[in-house]
Amino acid sequence: MALKSTVYKAELQLSDMDRNYYAAHSLTLARHPSETDERMMVRLLAFALNASENLVFARGLSDIEEPDLWLKDYTGAIQQWIEVGQPDERRLLKACGRSEQVLVYSYASNSPIWWQGMGNRLERAKNLTVWNLPVATSQALEKMAQRSMQLQCTIQDGQLWLTDETQTVQVDLISLKQPGGY
């Protein structure tokens, strides 16, 4: 018998002053059996950083043809393809061909090593953005994981703060690649 996903619910109050986007999102996150709380919370962070009415969680781990999150326009064309972790070169190049913008949020302690091996091979991907999340930050986010979460997120001047009932985590992403090159 196959293991089933664990369902998490998050009420996310978002104030993104950098993009003038203010909204409340009721999110359902299906945590794949092979996914950790840390990875799931990085997916939630990726949602907060790119939130819009049409951004949705995709099948990611359970379907190789889909990212972790994506934003499609009304015609079905993919505007944003968002990956969490350390996807391989072929997956990223395919995503770059299918989407206007591809974003990667890496978070593991070996992310710098992963990127050192990948960076030169992905230089031609002009619509790719890669961010690294410090390990201490992703581990602090992991501690916030609950089956039912009430979260407030504030984004201002490129910094993000995620707060629950007991703690606040400041998120400072490290840029590994920006669109058009390094």
UniProtKB/TrEMBL annotation:
This chain's source organism reads Sapientia aquatica
Q: What is the lineage of its organism?
A: Bacteria, Pseudomonadati, Pseudomonadota, Betaproteobacteria, Burkholderiales
Q: Which InterPro entries match?
A: Restrct_endonuc-II-like (IPR011335), YaeQ (IPR009822), YaeQ_sf (IPR038590)
Name of this protein: YaeQ family protein
One Pfam short name: YaeQ
